[in-house]
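Let's sit down with a protein and look at its sequence and fold side by side. We need material for that, and I hope you will provide a protein of your own picking. Once you have written the record down, we can walk along the chain together.

***
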Amino acid sequence: MGETNGNVAGTCRCQRQVSQAAELPESQVRHRTYREAQTPYRKKIMTKYLISFPSAAMQVPANEMEAVSEDSHAAIRQAKEAGVYVFGGGIDESVPPVLVSADGTTAQGGYPWAPPINGGFAVFEVPTREEAIAWAARLARACRCDQELRVFGFDPES
């Protein structure tokens, strides 16, 4: 068997019989990473994008809210079907934020110097920024307001 990224190609423990049949020593068996084991359908790690809007940006007449809801749910269903949707939702503004300290004590409200966080958001995982922009445009059409696009920094643990 050939080498891949410095590791001898083999199998993980879940396929022990294959490695035994190939008679590879345990030190030469390439085990799947946690991410590979959790998401076997993905071929590579992609960038995560935050697509969001503040509540004040959504200026929709009351008689159009049902259509906005249907359109936004349809866009999310499309993203799920495409396999790019990670999670999303709207901030429940009726529940005030709580600031939690390292020792577990809490204080009502968020950071007093920061603007409030509200509105809706979705996290998508796509291969290119262009694709993220295309999904943000779909959500902008569905929600009837511009969407802000941000990139999550890469973290191999997430």
Remarks:
- Residues 1-22, 28-36 have pLDDT under 50 and may be disordered.
